[in-house]
Amino acid sequence: MTLELISAHGCFGGVQRFYRHASAAIGLPMQFGVYLPPQALEPGAKVPVLFYLAGLTCNEETFAIKAGAQAHAARLGLAIVTPDTSPRGAEIEGEADEWDFGVGAGFYLNATQAPWDANWQMETYITQELHALVEHHLPVDMDRVGIFGHSMGGHGALTLALRNPGLYRSVSAFAPIAAPSQCPWGHKAFTGYLGPDRGPWSAHDASALMIEYPMPPYPEGILIDQGLADKFLPTQLHPEQFEAACAQIGQPLTLRRHEGYDHGYYFIQSFVADHLAHHARCLA
Q1: Does the bond joining 115 to the residue before it have cis omega, within 30 degrees of 0?
Q2: How far apart are CA 34 and CA 48, in angstroms?
Q3: 150, 263, 278, 279: the active-site residue
Q4: How far apart (Å, rounded) are the C-alpha atoms in residues 244 and 250?
Q5: pLDDT digits (tens, 9 = 90+) for 106-164
Q6: 230 counts as catalytic
Q7: N or C: less crowded end of the chain, CB within 10 Å?
Q8: pLDDT at 1
Q9: How far apart are CA 163 and CA 165, in angstroms?
Q10: Please, what sign has the CA dihedral across residues 201, 208, 184, 159?
Q11: Exposure string for 169-180, b = 16+ CB within 10 A, e = fewer
Q12: Is 151 among the residues known to form the active site?
């Protein structure tokens, strides 16, 4: 489990790093970022860690550069790990032809359909391999782990949290694809990665997964922020479906709808402090 340090940058008393490693799950090199707050740099320290999953077309640098989260993470003593959004360099014909499928669009699941099944094993990569790497190499407390994300990554955060009970103690999302079985992005990704039979799709749909729980899986609550000027809200995101699923089983959910905010990182910058505070409270 060797890591190659690509770069390191002092940031709010801590350090923002980027790493590369050979991935057994993916079968290709993968890169990820990590912000370590000043508290993590003390001898013998271990801090809570958040995994942030980015959206379509993004990579491991996007959140670190655009979200403005490091100042809040430094204050709260939280590490933030930012994986890439898909394998890269598989040389599958047409893998980068479309912005919402293939490269930059891994949807945080394990593909079962050729040719994607050889490398597109993002759920195993995130929940197993990357967790093990982070635990082995970084000063983090793997008993205090949270997950959050944006858009496709919000879908990933919700579904990975629900599919892996006990792995994450806190979860939140910005403008998640909350019911991918019912939107064009989800139809395209699920057909390509999982096949046209819709039977397996519900296992990767947060709204469908939630109602399968006999009791609330996150009793301390889930936080979602959604901009009402988001052009993808009417056709792709469907937060009301996840809201209804949470209500059905009594899962505490704070779903905040914001006038004038769109789907981009100005929106995320505006509310990222609230998300980090949510996780810090749950992981205290």
Answers
A1: yes
A2: 12
A3: 263
A4: 10
A5: 999 999 999 999 999 999 999 999 999 999 999 999 999 999 999 999 999 999 999 99
A6: yes
A7: C
A8: 75
A9: 6
A10: negative
A11: bbbbbbbbbbbb
A12: yes
Residue 11 to residue 80: CA distance in whole angstroms: 13
What DSSP line would sit under 159-214, residue for residue? HHHHHSTTT-SEEEEES----GGGSHHHHHHHHHHH-S-SGGGGGG-HHHHHTT-S
Residues 6+ apart with CB under 8 A from 191: none
Q: Can you give the length of the chain in residues? A: 284
| H helix or E strand, kind and range, residue 116 | none
Q: How far apart are CA 157 and CA 28, in angstroms?
A: 23
Q: Edge to edge, what strands does the sheet with 14-22 contain?
A: 4-11, 14-22, 29-36, 79-83, 47-53, 140-150, 170-174, 222-227, 253-258
Write the pLDDT tens digit of every residue in 156-182. Answer: 999 999 999 999 999 999 999 999 999
The residue annotated as part of the active site, out of 230, 238, 278, 279, is 230
Average pLDDT over the chain, rounded to whole? 98
Distance in angstroms (rounded) separating the CA atoms of residues 77 and 268 = 20
Phi-psi region of 123 (alpha: psi -120 to 50; beta: other; left: phi over 0): alpha
Q: Which position among 23, 72, 131, 151 bears the catalytic label? A: 151
